[in-house]
Amino acid sequence: MTVVFVTGCNMNSSAVSSDSQEEKVITIGYQKNGPLVILKSLGTLDERMESLGYSVEWKEFQAGPLLVEALNAGSIDFGRTGNTPPIFAQAADTPFTYVGVGFSKYEGSGILVPNDSDIKELKDLKNKTVGFSKGSSSHYLIVKALEKAGLHYTDIEPAFLTPGDARVAFEQGTIDAMAVWDPFTASTELHSDGKLLVSGEGLTTDRDFFVATIDFAENHPDMVDIILEEIENSSDWANSHHEELVDMLSPILNIDEASIEKSVKRRVYGIEEITEEIINEQQEIADVFYQLEIIPKELDVKEVMLEK
Predict the structure, then answer these.
(1) Solute-binding protein family 3/N-terminal domain: which residues (predicted)?
(2) Mean pLDDT score, 241-259
(3) Between 20 and 30 A from 191 (CA), which of 38, 56, 78, 280?
(4) What is the DSSP secondary-structure string of 204-231?
(5) pLDDT digits (tens, 9 = 90+) for 60-82
């Protein structure tokens, strides 16, 4: 009996067929600004899967929320997002599970202000307009930063903007500050007269999370393990080949090499175990978003963590 991964089906991304001639396809969702684009570019997973009689179909997504929607629809088996899209996926009852987690990349996440801004510390954000992507890791970062300064979310004027739109508004002076992640942080520092008011240190870990449909994770754990192994291998390569990594990512992201270099030098690629501490990090995000009425119900994130 041959396992056939069928893409684009309702809810379930894989099925079993007795036809040994059927092609076996694993569909992976990725974003340009993430570790899976490195894996895709290196081609090592494709080669390994081909040796096992499988092929890999790569689907690009502009944002994490769109990727988890595809996970919900069953049009991908596996993907990577930031720390907030899985919260929304769970709130929407998406049949998925966390299967892996990356190292914290808090250094490249933060709140930026113009170099000549009168905003010198977090408390100065009161009554200011801050641009960030709604429901993103930056949204959570803003909430935690305000909390640290003794302010409330209602003390600022939020401007819900994509990183690109926030950059334009920042340069035009229509927002006072913006919260974003690398390489947009680095590019703003280098080219838009911006400086970090604070990084994510002590506020958010801003991790990569690797997710899969429940069907794929439960029925094909060997495939999940292989994918994670190859992510780890490609991460090792990325950490030890910064020059080649910059050459790879700059044209893909259409961002200058100096910004990419600054970004990759202040993060570590790789996978670590999902610990109780990491589960608690995700639980806090879920709790904060529920309190802010960003998600409609309370969540227990342990319910969607893969049990080994």
Answers:
(1) 25-241
(2) 96
(3) 38
(4) -----EEEEEHHHHHH-HHHHHHHHHHH
(5) 998 888 899 999 999 999 999 99
Please provide the DSSP assignment of 174-202 as one string: SSSEEEE-TTHHHHHHHHSSEEEEEESTT
User: What's the fold here for domain 2-103+207-304?
Assistant: D-Maltodextrin-Binding Protein; domain 2 (3.40.190)
User: In this structure, what are the phi and psi dihedrals at residue 100, rounded to the nearest 5 degrees?
Assistant: -165, 165
**Does domain 106-199 correspond to CATH entry 3.20.20.450?**
no
- Which residues, 6+ apart, have CB-to-CB distance to 256 below 8 Å? 187, 190, 191, 250
Has residue 47 got a pLDDT over 80?
yes
- Alpha-carbon distance 172 to 194, whole Å? 12
Q: What rounded mean pLDDT belongs to the chain?
A: 90
Same topology for domains 2-103+207-304 and 106-199, yes or no?
yes
Q: Tell me the helix, strand and coil percentages in the chain, rounded to 5.
A: 45, 20, 35
Give CA–CA dist 119/109, Å, rounded.
18
The backbone torsions φ and ψ at residue 187, rounded to the nearest 5 degrees and listed phi first, read -65, -40
Q: At 19, which amino acid appears?
A: D
Within 204-297, residue ranges assigned H as helices are 214-219, 221-240, 242-253, 257-265, 276-291
Give the rounded distance of the alpha carbon of 105 from its chain centre.
Answer: 11
**Cα(33)–Cα(164) distance, integer angstroms:** 13
